[in-house]
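Recap from last week: sequence in, structure out.
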Amino acid sequence: MIFLIFKVKITGEKTWIFFEANGRPPEIDDPRVIWFVGNVEDQLPTVKIESGPKLIIFDLDVYEPTVFAWRFLCPYLHSGDLVYFDEAYDFDERRVITENVQKHFELETIGFTHTAIAFKLGRRIAINADDACNNLELPIC
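Predicted structure tokens:
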């Protein structure tokens, strides 16, 4: 299990922090918990993505970091993995879902609220060679 804490840059002058614990991650005495503090674009590439079932929680709210995270993680995702978008009905996360997630996997909705939605990934959909998920210099797991 890995917990991530990211800051999302909205403009060059302003940074929004989406998790706050007096500026520090909480102390959790569990070797499975690792904190990565910083911007998602800088920190996510440093994360070792392990094989096995995954639950990915997208709580970035803004298009650019959310699509970055999806495109980075996409090659590591498989049928049966779970993805959750906390602001799925807002424009930015909805755009990531419709322009990226739905183009890569068949989706089964497993739960939703008035703001969020969770999908179980189904069969990977054949995609074009120029697709963003395939253009990353990452191994396809």
